[in-house]
Amino acid sequence: MSAISTDPRATSAQTAESPALIRERKDRRRALGLLTPGLIWMALFMVLPMVMVIYVSFWTQTTFAVNSDLTTASWERFLSSSTYLTAIWTTLRIWLIVLVSTIVVGYPVALFIGLFVRNKTLQTALLVACVIPFWTSFLIRVIAWRPMLGTEGAINTILLKLGVISEPLTFLLFSEFSVLVGMTQIYCVFMVGPITFMLGRIDISVIEAARDLGASFGTVFRRIILPLSLPGVMVGSIFVSVMVLGEFATAASLSGRKVNLLGNIIVSQVGSLKWAFAAVAGVVLTIIITAVIALALRLVDLRKEM
Amino acid sequence: MLTLSQISRFYGDTVALDGVDFVVPEDTYMSLLGASGSGKTTLLRLIAGFEEPNHGEISINSKRIDGQAPHLRDIGFVFQNFALFPHLSVAENVAFGLRYRAENPLSNNSEILDRTQEALKLVGLDGFGHRGVGAISGGQRQRVALARTLVCEPRIVLLDEPLGALDANLRARMCDELRAIRERLGVSFLHVTGSETEALTMGDEVAVLANGRITQSDAPDTLFSQPRTAEAARHMNAWNTFDGGLCGDALSNQEIAVRFDQMEVCAPGTAPQDHLSLKAQYLTGEFNGPTALSFFRASDGSLLQIIDHLSQPRLPDLIEGQDYDLHFSSNALRQFHGAA
Question: Do both A41 and A189 map to the same domain?
């Protein structure tokens, strides 16, 4: 009976595929098409080099050459040297201070642009204004701090003229302080942007409702605005962290070689062709950055906020 | 008692409110009816203190409140979009005012909990306290917004189109509940809406806001059957307002109004002698179920509507494009002097 069945559904399913199936397959092909360039790029220029760096970090380093005999010597030297452990600590300390100072400087700016400026055009204009310093090169932005902070720089001259100090402040330039100032200025905008967008998304009537229920502005900020903007702070923190942890140029040009970050170590080791050792520092840095991002993502569930 | 006297508010050259005089008595459900863009929401925002009037005075029990910060006014505001705090649970939303208000906040957690529970019970949301505000329906969100406002026991509650975001079924139910809740609490509600049905159903008193002023404020049945101005009549969506000159010279240069259900239709020249009449072309009809609307165009271009009830049909068969005489008894007529 079933062999000679003339059920139209059965025959049509055999002869032609259902339109839904065809469409599903087409959608899947399109998704793959969109994904492929990114995947190839990531594989060639991120995953592969990363594996390579880990591999190289176990190579044998002699004074002028490196060969692929596997050894843990570079790792042992790195982890037992106080210079390098201090560099890790310096990197973490500078990262934390810069992170906090970009939040302290950036949050009020973002609060102003995102919440108090309700005109979208003006909002965009102000955000663009924050990016204007980026129209010049990174190096110029950093080096511009020298005439500002130097012994005969603008700040010292003004303070001397005002009689606030009797001799120039020397800690301003070529110190950890100048590195912190430089980094805060450069990376602040990466904090301002995400926080502004998050604040701009807060429905103004939510804030009015809180006011109407009797809360003062301070309370509204603490209980409503701040919690709702935290995902923005977290995204900004990830941006700033990734960039500050890998930094070397600001420290190189503003610290007078007094501040050694992991990034500076990599640069100098590569400069003296110590590939294995640079690779170790690179792996350590990657582990730190990964840990920091994982921690940040754990603190705020971004999936929920996007 | 909330009193507004000579309240004006401009935005640049645009006049939103132009000398509003308005009183909301104690223990009253007051509806405020106005078309969109008429300044209803502005009026509420001025009372709540989110904006300040350019002129005039707002007072509660003859104590002036304009100029005071919104969080010190002790006025409840229920937003059209509910404006719930998205990061807090239902119970935390309701407890917000009790816990964080600047003036005598509660610190006793069990008292806050009790009052929150009580407020949630009042709006029929018992047991929903732990839910996130994203995990409840539109009608439930509306109730949370209401509970959050009522728990603070404000001196007056302002509702900005509170039913606008709800579907028709829910709207009808919330209407009854809002009235019941208000009667239980004995606090005045000022309910702003663009729907005349909603305003007439809900209000102990209905005020009509038009051209930046309160044009009439009366009991619903009075307002509906005896509008004092052409604006008020137009807002009832039950009156034809037109130039009296269409019915003969005696009424010329006056705006007159006749209710949809008090106009009759007959063939040209057959209108009763004691009725006023005017010529108009039949445009089209609209069948709404229990009622049917017929649309006519008068000779000066104004649109007239006549309503026919299914149970008592009184219109002849009408042919689109043909002229008819519309007539009505002079008792049905309302004249507005100088309002045109």
Answer: no
Give the CATH number of the domain where residue A145 resides: 1.10.3720.10
Q: Residues of A numbered 204-223 whose beta carbons fall under 8 angstroms of chain B's beta carbons: which are they?
A: 205-206, 208-216, 219, 223
**Residue B242, C-beta contacts closer than 8 angstroms, at least 6 positions apart:** B255, B256, B257, B278, B298, B300, B302, B304
Lookup: tokens for B230? 């052409």
Contact B83 A227 (CB under 8 A): no
Across the interface, whether the CB atoms of A212 and B75 are under 8 A apart is answered: yes
pLDDT per residue of chain B (340 residues) written in tens, 0 to 9: 999 999 999 998 899 999 999 999 999 999 999 998 899 999 999 999 999 999 999 999 999 999 999 999 999 999 999 999 999 999 999 999 999 999 889 999 999 999 999 999 988 888 899 999 988 988 899 899 999 999 999 999 999 988 887 777 878 888 888 898 899 889 999 999 999 999 999 999 999 999 999 999 999 999 999 999 999 999 999 999 998 888 887 788 888 999 999 999 998 888 888 888 899 999 999 988 888 999 999 988 899 999 998 888 888 888 899 999 999 998 888 888 654 3
Tally of domains within chain B: 2
Range of the domain at B315: 239-336
Which residues of chain B make contact with A210, given a CB cutoff of 8 A? 85, 96, 100
Whether B95 and B227 share a structural domain: yes
Residue B79 Ramachandran class (φ > 0 left, ψ -120 to 50 alpha, else beta):
beta
Give me the interface pTM, i.e. the ipTM.
0.84
Say whether both A226 and A267 belong to one domain.
yes
Total tally of structural domains belonging to chain A: 2
Look at A214 and B100 and tell me if their CB atoms are within 8 Å. yes
Q: How far is it, in rounded angstroms, from Cα A276 to Cα A2?
A: 72
Does residue A265 share a domain with residue A183? yes
Q: Note whether B191 and B279 are same-domain residues.
A: no
Residue at A239 is within a domain: yes
Q: Could you write out the DSSP letters of every residue in A132-174?
A: GGGGS-HHHHHHTHHHHHSTTSHHHHHHHHHTS-SS--STTSS
What is the helix (H) or strand (E) element at residue B258, kind and residue range? strand B255-259
* Spatial distance between the Cα atoms of A16 and A251, rounded to a whole number of angstroms: 67
Q: Any idea what the CATH number is for the domain that residue B307 is in?
A: 2.40.50.140
Residues from chain A contacting residue B148 (CB–CB below 8 Å): 209, 213
Determine the structural domain holding residue A35 and report its residue range: 2-49
Closest chain A C-alpha to B207 CA, distance in angstroms:
24
Would you call B152 and A213 a contact, using CB atoms and an 8 Å cutoff?
yes
